[in-house]
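The protein record passed on below.

***
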Amino acid sequence: LVGSVRGQALFNDLEIKNSPNHGLYLGYNGGGWERNSVVRDVYCHDNWGSNQIDNTENLVVDGFISENDSWGMWTASRKAFVLDGMYATSGHSIVTNVHVLDGAMFIFGYWKSRDDLSLRLSNIYIDSQDIAKHGLYIQNCNNVSISDGTIVAGTGNYAASVTNCTGITFDDMELRGKRSLVVESGYRSDVKLDGCDLNASEDVFRLYGAGSTALFTGCDLGTSSSSAYLINVQAGATASVVGCHGSGSGLIYVSSSSGVLTHAGTSGLGLEAYGATSVADGGTIAHTAKITPRYVQVTPSVAGTIATVTAIDSTTFTVDFSGTTTTQTVYWHAKY
């Protein structure tokens, strides 16, 4: 189905199947903008090509299912449902109650010159299986909100990827895959996640791009792999983690050249550790943090002792005593 009405069209209660080309295709392919149109309760399946809505202003999608689409057109990316804002400068679009099965959802070109919302995507479920590299891919967008849903990628693929975007927010989302969320290299992007649940087998979160930023608040970051990265911050990027919880397993990586990671009120991420350890003068204590601490505070237990940390590495720190050199319990706090 190719839309030819350029505004205020209603596409309601449709089943589109077994097309030798696209399934649903509205907008640019029909010759102009798709303004103020509504897509409601549409089920597309087993179409050779994608379902695509281009050149949108004030689009409303409420109830859309794509199943096993784009099986012949984009066999690698499997772009089953594509929204392309074509850089519209007015209006905003609302897309809700979307299921994409056996394929991926791609969002392009929702980029407005003002700071108001360009696209709101909510109540979504994407299961891309092992046949699409990404579950959700967002490129060249700003001020896009994604909330209240689940994205599941196959064991070798990414739940969500963001490239060259600003003002992208994920709220109350569950992201699962080889990598839960990747901010791609080569471009500056910024993302915010609030109340999200991320779980991955390789990278729970990976942040690329000089100048890219990410803010996590109240999120759960999990992996069952001891070699996976809960947080991976590459050169030039900055991540902030506030009030988040980690699974206990997994690693933390921050580029030593110019990566930045700040945190507050976290648990289970291995960014800080506490303990009380008996140690001799000049002895070492295993700090158990997942990344080399930036500082370690020590308090001796024997009166008259001054304890000083003289060395810190990825697994231990060294304590020297003065005043008295008696072996004793040292209370310590290590923090990245």
